[in-house]
Design a protein that fits this description.
CATH class of the largest domain in chain A: Alpha Beta
Number of strands of chain A: 5
Radius of gyration of chain A: 25 Å
Largest interface: A-B, 15 and 15 residues
Number of helices of chain A: 10
CATH architecture of the largest domain in chain A: 3-Layer(aba) Sandwich
Oligomer: homodimer
Helix content of chain A: 40-55%
Strand content of chain A: 5-15%
CATH topology of the largest domain in chain A: Rossmann fold
Largest sheet of chain A: 5 strands, parallel
Distance between the termini of chain A: 53 Å
Order of helices and strands of chain A: EHEHEHEHEHHHHHH
Chain lengths: ~210, ~210
DNA sequence: TAAAATCCCCCATCTTTGTGGGATTTAAAA
DNA sequence: TTTTAAATCCCACAAAGATGGGGGATTTTA
């Protein structure tokens, strides 16, 4: 049995949801509020919710800023963000603040139920388009931040490339074999997403390295 | 026998020079004037000077602007500019106007005599520091201006190279054969004194093209 | 009008690059 | 201590680049 709370100001969305969750026998429907303020007024709560469905575009305290507040009072509660827009920035702000799911309001009711269950079981339910963005985010994080960072050796080689030196010359300068230089250059190309020395030089001069 | 005229306003320089030249038996000392205006008033002249020593910093009509005027009236006369400063700009203005020599006023008298003779024989007497500048000038002219100027086509190709494009791609973009692109690239390399695309890119980004 | 530039194309040859593997060593982190 | 990240080196092959020729066409300019 999973207890669920809802904070949603739009009646047309709130009511059907309330109706639907009420009749589910594996879900214990808890409180429903129209604003964060109202929700917090009901504290302390008799039944601590396992899951909170939180609208992101609330009047007064926004759902986004509510996350931290609520997480502090209900650390065990999984928060699923509920929104009409899939604004990239808000998604990550929400996830960083501690939300564990992110659903679009056009999600079918039974999908929402599944999401609630998934969240309660430490899952991370999110609409496909949201999920894609999250993936991309980590993709970038992995490729721009971690994997695009050049090692000292690679930087050194980039400098020689910018100087217009050939593999042979660079190898001589660094007392390495040509193959070593080629090996590093290959990795540099992968990290910078290029495939020629000229592109490396251009990137270097644009300060993109 | 070489006839020499002088236009020099500073007495301390004019007089020793006059004295010295007067006693030379291979030099026919002509007129001496303190200004261009005064010099021109003596026209028409009975003896046309082979050489005119012309101060550059004269009051009234400057020596610099006098060159063209005098050259028109005395096209056969070699003009030696006489100056205390070796201002780069003036040197070239003078040479462009038709001066054939350029001496600093600290030049020893016997050197001046040699310069007069040299000028009369279609030489180009000039003080060492002046000469150096002239050499540099032509050096730049030859390498930076005339021979390093890229044709429109070449510039176009440079842009593609900077974009990291291969010969094949450039050829496709410009509707030329690869060979044409290679031909132009060869010429670009010669003009820029480089021998690889990476060097071209580097130069381009440094604004050296 | 006759040089001088500029542009277009082709050939041949050799070097350099770009790419895809794989192997070893070493130092640092887990 | 095992895993991981970095660095080192090697092989091989196809593609691209660099270099030196040559032959024309057209346009500028002296």
């Amino acid at each position: 049995m999973i207890s669920v709370d809802i904070i949603e100001d739009v009646a047309d969305i709130r009511n059907p949801l309330k109706e639907f969750l009420s009749i589910q026998n594996d879900i214990l429907f808890g409180s429903i509020s129209e604003s964060v303020e109202e929700y917090l007024n009901n504290f302390p709560k008799e039944i601590l919710p396992d899951v909170l469905i939180l609208d992101i575009g609330l009047p007064g305290i926004s759902g986004l800023s509510a996350i931290e507040i609520i997480k502090e009072k209900l650390p065990e509660t999984e928060i699923i963000m509920f929104t009409v827009h899939d604004e990239p920035g808000k998604i990550f702000d929400a996830l960083k603040s501690g939300a564990s799911g992110y659903l679009l309001k056009n999600t079918p009711l039974d999908e929402i139920k599944r999401a609630v269950i998934e969240a309660a079981n430490n899952g991370a339910p999110m609409s496909p388009s949201i999920a894609r963005q999250v993936i991309q985010y980590f993709d970038k994080r992995k490729t721009v931040k971690e994997s695009e960072i050049l090692t000292p050796k690679e930087r050194q080689i980039v400098n020689y490339i910018v100087d217009g030196q050939s593999y042979k010359m660079i190898a001589a300068n660094l007392n390495n074999s040509i193959e070593t230089i080629k090996y590093h250059t290959k990795n540099i190309y992968k990290k910078l997403h290029v495939n020629s020395k000229t592109e490396v030089v251009a990137k270097a001069f644009r300060g993109e390295i």
